[in-house]
Amino acid sequence: MTRKPTIDDVARAAGVARATVSRVLNASPNTSERVREKVLKAVEALNYQVNHQARQLASRTSRVVALVFAADAEAEPNSYYHSAIELGAMRASTEHGYGLVTHTMDPTTDAYRSKILSLVNQSRCDGLILTPPFSDDEEMIGELRECGYPFVLISAGPQARGLSPSVGIDDRQAGVELGSYLVEQGHRRFGYIGGPSEHRSAALRLEGLLEALHTAGLGDDAIDVVEGNFTFKSGIDLAAQLLSGARHPTALVCANDDMAAGALFTAHRIGLNVPVDVSITGFDDTPVSQIVWPPLTTIHQPLRQMGSKATELLIAGVMGENGNHSAGTFEHFVPFELVQRDSTAKRAVE
Amino acid sequence: MTRKPTIDDVARAAGVARATVSRVLNASPNTSERVREKVLKAVEALNYQVNHQARQLASRTSRVVALVFAADAEAEPNSYYHSAIELGAMRASTEHGYGLVTHTMDPTTDAYRSKILSLVNQSRCDGLILTPPFSDDEEMIGELRECGYPFVLISAGPQARGLSPSVGIDDRQAGVELGSYLVEQGHRRFGYIGGPSEHRSAALRLEGLLEALHTAGLGDDAIDVVEGNFTFKSGIDLAAQLLSGARHPTALVCANDDMAAGALFTAHRIGLNVPVDVSITGFDDTPVSQIVWPPLTTIHQPLRQMGSKATELLIAGVMGENGNHSAGTFEHFVPFELVQRDSTAKRAVE
DNA sequence: CACGATTTTGGAAGCGCTTCCAAAATATCG
DNA sequence: CGATATTTTGGAAGCGCTTCCAAAATCGTG
Lengths: 350, 350
Description:
Two copies of one chain form a homodimer.
Chain A: H1 7-14, H2 18-25, H3 33-46, H4 52-59, E1 64-70, H5 79-95, E2 99-105, H6 111-121, E3 127-130, H7 138-146, E4 151-154, H8 158-163, E5 166-168, H9 171-184, E6 190-194, H10 200-215, E7 223-227, H11 232-243, E8 251-254, H12 257-269, E9 279-281, H13 288-291, E10 298-300, H14 303-319, E11 331-333, E12 337-339
Parallel strand pairs in A: 1-2, 1-3, 3-4, 4-5, 5-11, 6-7, 6-8, 8-9
Antiparallel strand pairs in A: 10-12
Chain A binds a DNA duplex (30 and 30 nucleotides) through α2 and α4.
């Protein structure tokens, strides 16, 4: 096995200095067409590949972005949601010549803060993409800002959004649309299975939902709100609680698809017909919403796009040296969409 | 922001040479207790963190392992399956001080081979973990072996398993157990929705299933075999094909949970009651199997454990310098388990 | 065409670490 | 106790690249 060619081999082959090759490879503006071609030809001929380690050491960047997900020690992660974001991030980072490393950490212990900070300090990555609930940890975000470290938030709440580059849908508006859709369908008694209180974006969805109810002349007593943790299991349990009793809600809004699937499960178990007896809605439009029976009416979030958009913002920020944290519009909204399937139906007003 | 301490700072603080610090940090055997302590104290005092880039450049290793998944350009990946493996791999790699990067590539185009080889060549990682169908690409595996590159296979078929370190369940035996269970339940007409032919492990499951049928005195005409692609969608379509007509199978065995969920969907649509009219089984025991209604009888694979085991084997191989490819037992079987849920039931022999 | 302004190129100094080699210190043994 | 084997330490040479600075080439202008 012969030694891999180095930049010096290329320089020799092209008859130029090492520094010139480096410039060509890094698309520096100051190179003549003639030399550029010679170098490129030599690269081709030798099948030269840059050594990332060396490049990183010399340039003091890692060309790696880190994606941080929540995963309780035991809970299965909200996989479809995470996978979709990861896939988008992966595509975008690869496209820009960056690597992507994914980290999961337990948001219920405080250790995650130091873990995140140490990722940064060890120069393991050039920037961070934070997903909920980390994207709402204002204290940590403050620290990151202070050390001038680039990061982008996904689905952050309003406070965090104002301060930092972020991508997400307009959760409040999504809540409004979902609410008015259900009101239009004739529903008057609602249940809401939300997320943990740290998840600001899920709370926004509820605000929007309430707004829609108010607009329709309904008060807060028209809705029963309970707090889940985004797992299938919590959907099962909380739906059992909400659907017991004769005057149960006729529409159950869930803050993600997994909990909606759990609610569906419970409805089946206690013999309620969905959507005849009760309408159920999810959120995210992950594959879960089509796997269950009946398929879920839900809000489509372009998760893949969110992942790639976040990555691109991050990379732009890294390259622009603190361009990330300079003035400008931080908040990137991506479009959402109400997807009607068979888990909801019109309900005659009693 | 003050400059980060380097190994030279530590050396100066401890009053020793740089090389000595390096030795202590890398747990080299030849260091005296006295010096080791001085160095460790200095490290502590300065809050020194090694610079990975520099270490990697100097030592010509990356301390990163790569995990390779299949993802068609458009198809949503088989997320739960992948996520579980990834989680296991992540835990194990972190534990051993390694990074993990995940790569997805499209197995339907041939480009993936050069992509995988280039991962290796660019010294982006010290080793590879291959999942199906890549773990069955004997040609590529041969190339990897030739360049002496460490890798571990997950759920590979028998040919590949013999040659390389691998982890997985005994797929054939799982097929046998599933088959005899269904035979015991009284089923006599079967359908099998398999994977693409490159997936050797899925083919093994079928072999086991057939063996169980033969043992029960049933011939190959007792089973209709069709080839899916592990997606929910293909489960829907192929089940529609198998379940049409009056004398449809009474038991439908699917090579993964997603396709089983699709089969369930079709059964619902065409008005068949599961499990009364037809029993359906999945494979893997991903969360999907509990999300659908009725919950799926399936084979539990310890995916997380498989991910971590593969990672550990790989790291052991990397550290042992070709210990990976030396003699010894390559095949690591992990236990599987038949999980009975509500998608299967006894069937009276007609 | 000469001269300063600008662009392109080459030389050389690191980036922070590992590792080879030889020197120093310590242990072993007749 | 001296000579030799062994272990521990220090010095120095890179790993392959980027980037600063100055030299060389090119351009623009009166």
